[in-house]
């Protein structure tokens, strides 16, 4: 229940930014522009508010530099999409693919690439920017600037007032590692995105000539932030289901407001605010809200939208199919490999936490715990598809250990690790000895993930009578038992010298991969 209400402050900040941007855009519209300036500004504000949440000043300055420039470039692409779809579609696919590809150059390039995709998304909603001739370039930049300032003002004011959540700390991100065949992860994601968008343009133009943008937008959404094939399939199912639910809501809303009624605009903004709140729970809520918003827009302009909304479900399904096909057959990335890599990163960070705890190094313990918490955030980003798959498997009455069990168990270690870090004073000799045994079990779990030879895990030694047996150690060890149940014990060690637990923890890097940045794995 607490997780449901946790996103309300962030949704309130987003709503304030939407209202501010909407008001500024309406003033521009009243000066002689059409409604497209309002739609473009609101679309940019809505997407930017999510991307910039908790951003550092440097990240915001990067947005100020990138967003208007890319908005000007995409305005030309939008004009081509309206007049020369084949040329515009090719440039669109290549542009978005390039924005994904630049993530290989580090965190700054990854942030710039993420920001650069936002005007591309907006141009699918308003293919022809406001104005005419060269003026459209100016107004596209103005819309981007309004969106940026609205989001920055509201988020910075909220941060000063202590409203909303900050983004979790992010460890320095090196360049993505090369996968088999010399392909970096970002290279694979860029190729998949470009192919998915190209296929969506072709299929959308053939099957839905008047609504091809719905197919392309869906292909973009299910392919963005790709964390493996299962992630794309999961998002596709949520988007199709959400669109179907949105059609039901749209049918109920049909005819409620007469054409041109400004009350429908207020309802649209309210629906967007609620959708931004519920999106953290499931993307299906967002997809349903977008369909309902579309129905309200049709009603505002005096169009009958029920039959068109049924076409929307078909277009969404085709776009999802394009995204899934690209993820499955174009340089595919297995979701299981992503999960093992991020699990290994979390275990490596946990090793550092336990080493700092035993060594009584307070400063290193704080830093190690921050890295561990960040690794759990990254692990949680990939959890939803595995949990959905586990639910389907359990419906078939299969009770074998599932990878989702290991993910949930490791995420559940956040509380126990926090309890260890909060212990006053250094650990006693008995507690330190149990922590050392737990460190050896973490090493065994890391070796099991990488199928590297080594000793199996062992139960923690029982605390002597009267000695404090801190339950946090037992809770972490229970999570390691769950990992062992899923992945098995490491293969038997080869005969030879046996490394100590600490030395093994430092040398065992076979399963500790280089992090590849949010949304790029």
């Amino acid at each position: 229940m607490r997780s449901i209400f946790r996103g309300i402050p962030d949704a309130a900040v987003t709503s304030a930014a939407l209202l501010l941007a909407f008001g500024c855009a309406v003033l521009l519209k009243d000066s002689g522009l059409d409604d497209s300036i309002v739609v473009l500004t609101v679309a940019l504000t809505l997407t930017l508010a999510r991307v910039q949440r908790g951003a550092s000043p440097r990240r915001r300055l990067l947005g100020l530099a990138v967003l208007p420039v890319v908005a000007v470039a995409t305005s030309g692409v939008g004009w081509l999409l309206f007049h020369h779809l084949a040329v515009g579609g090719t440039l669109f696919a290549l542009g978005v693919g390039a924005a994904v590809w630049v993530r290989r150059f580090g965190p700054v390039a990854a942030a710039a690439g993420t920001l650069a995709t936002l005007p591309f998304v907006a141009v699918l909603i308003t293919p022809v920017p406001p104005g005419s001739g060269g003026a459209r370039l100016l107004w596209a930049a103005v819309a981007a600037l309004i969106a940026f300032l609205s989001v920055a003002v509201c988020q910075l004011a909220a941060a000063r007032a202590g409203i909303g959540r900050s983004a979790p700390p992010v460890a320095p991100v090196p360049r993505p590692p090369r996968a088999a065949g010399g392909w970096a992860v970002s290279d694979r994601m860029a190729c998949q995105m470009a192919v998915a968008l190209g296929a969506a343009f072709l299929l959308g133009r053939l099957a839905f000539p008047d609504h091809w943008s719905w197919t392309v937008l869906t292909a973009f959404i299910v392919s963005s932030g790709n964390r493996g094939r299962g992630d794309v399939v999961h998002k596709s199912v949520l988007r199709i289901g959400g669109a179907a639910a949105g059609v039901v809501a749209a049918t109920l809303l049909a005819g409620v407001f007469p054409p041109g009624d400004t009350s429908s605009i207020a309802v649209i903004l309210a629906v967007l605010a609620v959708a931004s709140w519920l999106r953290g729970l499931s993307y299906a809520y967002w997809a349903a809200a977008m369909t309902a918003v579309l129905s309200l827009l049709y009603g505002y302009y005096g169009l009958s939208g029920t039959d068109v909304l049924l076409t929307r479900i078909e277009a969404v399904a085709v776009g999802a199919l394009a995204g899934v096909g690209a993820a499955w057959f174009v340089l595919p990335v297995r979701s299981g490999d992503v999960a093992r890599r991020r699990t290994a990163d979390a275990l490596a960070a946990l090793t550092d936490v336990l080493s700092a705890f035993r060594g009584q190094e307070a400063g290193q313990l704080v830093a190690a715990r921050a890295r561990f918490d960040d690794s759990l955030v990254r692990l949680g980003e990939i959890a939803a598809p595995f949990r959905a798959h586990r639910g389907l498997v359990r419906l078939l009455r299969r009770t074998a250990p599932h990878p989702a069990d290991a993910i949930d168990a490791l995420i559940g270690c956040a509380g126990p690790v926090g309890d260890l870090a909060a212990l006053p004073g250094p650990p006693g000799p008995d507690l330190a000895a149990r922590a050392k045994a737990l460190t050896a079990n973490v090493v065994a779990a890391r070796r099991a993930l990488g199928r590297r030879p080594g000793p199996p895990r062992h139960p923690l030694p029982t605390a002597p009578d009267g000695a404090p047996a801190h339950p946090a150690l037992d809770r972490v060890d229970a999570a390691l038992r769950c990992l062992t149940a899923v992945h098995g014990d490491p293969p038997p060690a080869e005969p030879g010298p046996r490394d100590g637990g600490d030395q093994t923890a430092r040398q065992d890097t076979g399963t500790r991969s280089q992090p590849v940045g949010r949304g790029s794995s």
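The two ends are 30 Å apart (CA to CA). The chain has a mean pLDDT of 82.
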